[in-house]
Amino acid sequence: MNLYLRLLILLIKSYWKPRLDLMDKSILKFYVLPNDLDINMHMNNGRYNSIMDLGRADIMLRTGLLRIIYRKKWFGLVGSIHTRFRRPLKPFQKYELHSQVIYWDDKWIWIEQKIFSKGKLISSALVQTIIRSKSKNIASPELMELMGFYYPSPEITEEIKHLQRFEPLE
């Protein structure tokens, strides 16, 4: 229930937030709630990925992508998530989720997501995503054009190159 409430709040707030350019950073603020906790009384590792879903939803909402994929009956999928945990988040601790598209090729879109609290990095993730129709993958250049973004991808990062060598996805 907690994430549905957070998603509803995100949907309502996004209506008044400015539109994001594809390369803009989304910043969302949260508190660790009791149902985010595991037996060790810190935020559950799986909850980080669920919270990061909200950051990606904010990007899709505020760039106009969500409207496009809804209209065309497409859907977004995650191909991989590479997450690093640095520090725990304790009950009721305030934190920020920073999400930003950092690279795309013909098939995949890569999003960097970082959680900060009190100016310190708590967790970081590199998320590989794709948009699909029922029958095929939607090429990233086609998505960019539909959203009105007409510039090339930034250079691929060394971390993305490393992940592609480690686990190539076809």
From TrEMBL:
Organism superkingdom: Bacteria
A Pfam family: 4HBT_2
Transmembrane portions of the chain: none
PANTHER family associated with the record: PROTEIN THEM6, PTHR12475
Name of the featured protein: Thioesterase
Organism listed in the record: endosymbiont of Galathealinum brachiosum
